[in-house]
Amino acid sequence: MKNIISSSQLAAIITIVFVFILDYYIPPGTAIGMLYLAALPMLIDSSKKTIVIFAAIISFLILENLAYFGSTRTSVYIDRALSVLSVWVVAYVIIRYRIVRDRKEGIKEKQRKALEEMLFITNHKVRHPISNMLGIAEEIEDPQHNPQEVRQLLKALYPQLKELDDFTRQLTLFMDQQKTSL
């Protein structure tokens, strides 16, 4: 069964409830509304919708306290307005941070996949001609071969060298494509 609420969301709710209770016991005008901001960073791994919902709830609670107690002092209204504004600024910053973080993770994943592909290609396409050339080189070193057999062995090296050359060109093209796609 999937959890309805994450542990970070539960921590944010507990923080909000604590600040809400504190806000009722401390007289208006003491900037307690700013303490609600502590709950928002706890939601950094939550969805954009969840962050906006929490910001709206916090804004309501900040303004509800003002409506409940009321005040004739302008500073209390300014304090509450700044608290609400701060909540939405922090929510916006968290959402923007998540977008940037997700983009960076996407780029890292793309780079990781490209590196894996390059390693796979290198391992299979380079090792094959090199192992063939090593086998031919061992045969050439055998003193029992006559000059005609040595010439045939040298001719057998050409396709292996061509295959290695083709691969290095493909690898260079692949790396250029990866560089331009990032």
From TrEMBL:
Keyword Transmembrane: yes
Keywords, alphabetical: Membrane, Transmembrane, Transmembrane helix
An annotated Gene Ontology molecular function: phosphorelay sensor kinase activity
Domain of life: Bacteria
Coiled coil location: none
Ranges annotated as spanning the membrane: 12-39, 51-71, 77-95
Protein name per the record: Signal transduction histidine kinase dimerisation/phosphoacceptor domain-containing protein
